[in-house]
Amino acid sequence: DIRECEAGEDMxxxxxxxxxxxxxxxxxxxxxxxxxxxxxxxxxxxxxxLHQERRHIPTGSVTIIHxxxxxxxxxxxxxxxxxxx
Length: 85
Description:
Elements: H1 11-23, H2 35-46, E1 62-66, E2 69-75, H3 77-80
């Protein structure tokens, strides 16, 4: 269920699928996905609306959510190594 919005899937169904995935994750988890899934999952997890900013998540980037806050979004691994969480 960790995939992009499928053809014919409405936004409500997509969001419900993401909420279901997030509800079954252990507290420390790693997800590998694409831009839209990441943006919606981050919004659900933190309440921060990210689509209005028209954010783009670069390929091969890292997004970290820690204690319901976005620590970094779409960062390259070199920048993430410097974070202390």
